[in-house]
Amino acid sequence: MTEAWGSTGQRDGLGAVRRAPGTPTWVSLMAHGLAATQEFYGALFGWEFRPGPEQLGPYVRALLDGHEVAGIGQLPPDHHLPIAWTPYLASDDVDATAEAVRHCCGTIGVGPLDAGPAGRMAIAVDPAGAVFGIWQAAEHLGAALVGEPGTPAWNELLTPETAGVVKFYQAVFGYTEEAVVSADFDYVTLQVEGRPVAAVHGVGQALPRDRGAHWMTYFEVADVDESVERVIELGGHVVKPARAGSHGRVATVADPEGAVFTLVHSES
Fold first, then answer.
1. Considering the domain boundaries, does residue 73 fall inside one?
2. Which of 50, 130, 131, 179 could tie 213 with a disulfide, CB 3.0–4.6 Å?
3. What is the sign of the dihedral through the CA atoms of 40, 268, 248 and 146?
């Protein structure tokens, strides 16, 4: 799965690369308790933290071995939005991408706005209701380490059905697609420059009613079962127990505030 976070060549001093438009480049979590959330993920993944852009409020970047891998921000107390990990998809022009989102029946919830010298961003919602970010990199190119334990490895959209929403993402980002041919499995891989970068999984009535359509972030771990135990020890809970998945052993869990994510130990 790690080829999903590919590059178009430019690399910064921390090891991040400038990714082709449509490629996931960053994942970010907005939570109510910033300090407690840092403590949870620091203990689970070994992350350390340093301040990031604060255009939308207090925000930190998570580092693993000195490499930036994810972001965590604090929601204002009066905001009661779902606590969720959000993938940011790369764009060369966030304003043009935001306009394409609107033209294709999506909405823009935040921005576009500058995140200081780091880049320019927007938060969008696809026609099925799933939230995602758009990132136009300047100084901050995105995740500098991926596919290693404690880093993002894959992003997958869970939605009622793939057909309509895949057309939306193709129109906005220019993806090509590769469908899994199966009578009972509605699954499409989104590709950039001939390589898979994300997937759309149509789950029909199995979609949680309290969440609706949403993007799922997968984090690589050395041992899924041990990581699940650690999640529970740290105050999180199990959503789907450890099991064999198409990419390796996986388990879906939630942090103490309810942000859902998937742990994966990828098959080599």
1. yes
2. 130
3. positive
Q: Which of 137, 163, 197 is the last residue of a domain?
A: 137
pTM over 0.85? The answer is yes
**How many angstroms separate the Cα of 159 from the Cα of each of 184, 196, 222, 245?**
15, 18, 29, 18
Whole-number Å distance between alpha carbons of 193 and 230: 38
CA distances from 176 to 35, 168, 170, 203, 253 (A): 40, 12, 7, 21, 30
Is there a domain that residue 221 lies in?
yes
- Residue (of 53, 46, 120, 130) closest to 87 by Cα position: 130
Alpha-carbon gap, residue 226 to 33, rounded angstroms: 25
Cβ 65 vs Cβ 145: under 8 Å: yes
CB distance 247 to 263 below 8 Å? no
Q: pLDDT tens string for the chain (268 positions)? A: 655 655 444 444 445 678 999 999 999 999 999 999 999 999 999 999 999 887 778 999 999 999 999 999 998 877 777 799 999 999 999 999 999 999 999 999 999 999 889 999 999 999 999 999 999 999 999 999 988 999 999 999 999 999 999 999 999 999 999 887 666 789 999 999 999 999 999 999 888 877 899 999 999 999 999 999 999 999 999 999 999 987 799 999 999 999 999 999 998 6
For the record, the structure tokens of 118 come out as 């780091």
- Same domain (yes/no): 13, 123: yes
Sheet of strand 85-90: strand arrangement: 48-51, 59-64, 67-74, 24-31, 85-90, 131-137, 119-125, 107-114
d(CA 94, CA 122): 7
